[in-house]
Please model this.
Amino acid sequence: MKVAVLGSGGREHALIRALWRSKSVEHLVSIPGNPGTAETAKSVCFDPGDFDALRKFVRKERIDLVVPGSESLIAAGVADLLAREATAVFAPDKEAGKLESSKAFASEFRTRYGVPQPRYAVVDRMDEALDKARDFLSEFGGVAVKADGLAAGKGVVVARDWETARKAIREALVDRRFGNAGRKLVLEELIDGEEISILALVDGVRIVPLLPSQDYKKLRHGNTGPNTGGMGAYAPVPWCDHRTMDEIRQTILEPTLRGIQAEGFRFRGVLYAGLILSPRGLLVLEYNVRFGDPETQAVLSLLESDLGELMLSACRGSLPPEPLSWKDGAAVCVILASAGYPRSSSHGDPIDGLSAAQNAGAIVDHAGTKIVGGRLVTAGGRVLGVTALGPDLLRAADRAHEAAARILFHGKQMRNDIGRVGNSQGASKIGPVGSRNRVP
Model:
């Protein structure tokens, strides 16, 4: 079949790599793509957000399957548009997209269908927000201030003191740092604990989880610095065994699917559930309605099942009941970010050492790169993702960090502890990955 992947980041490069390995895929197109995706997919350079151009291209080229990478395309209704073209689209409809595009909607959805989550309040006025923040700080010792709408993974501020909370609320509601995305806020009790990401394929009837993964939002080593779109990830997660996965299915995934069905959403795609292990058990911090970045780079590096066939089956409402096939061992992805990220980003800095990293056994996914004058240079905040496999987590981490160190560009930012510590503050080292981590 002919498959078009929409987007130009590291997640899209990872999706194209996995689809290129799929026997069911004969022809791959990347819209608009990047220098890395161009190695295995034909780049077609137009904005996938131009839905009129996208519809004409899909019709002319007789594309069988469209895979949108970003949340913005889903929130804009790309699945609704292409459904009228009788094209399979691996993405939920615009209404279901509100599970990611509105944190307030998602919180209220979880309340309706009994999905465990932190205690929260939805506010849109400065005085009310400040009063609620005081209450949360007093009762829980901290508050998470979340912009309601899409903010490129940067709309969350963790506040453990009044001044940080006040500043975050003012920046969103008064200064409009996040534009319309911050016109409404979700304030949430602050919970310390290990986080875990669950990506699950959904066909409207069945929900099939992929390997559990863990990502790292903080910019710097030891989980310090500002939040980012993600500085690294690994899969699978050592403490997420069969019993834990059964709990996730029963208390989180299945109730979410029942809610999707009750709301009448057309959901044929992937659901991302960001969870935290709290004293009250596993709680949902967020939903995404697309593949995560950089979790996708780690998880799909281990997938042996045919991703193209799985996506098409999901679109047809017929995901296979049998377990998916996975490689043994673990995968670790280390993100290399440009100077100034996440507040700003440097562009046009020459990149060296990709061949050296690949010769060390790593997979390099392009995210923010471009070719200028025949040279590969930086073109965005998160520049590259360097992924390595290993027989266990610590050896995969060593290989990924060693390979990432071989890539050089001005102002490069990377963490040296991805896969070596947990993603909670002050977490201890993680032990080797065993066969118990395979998802049934």
The chain has 13 helices and 23 strands. Residues 222 and 426 are 7 Å apart (CA to CA).
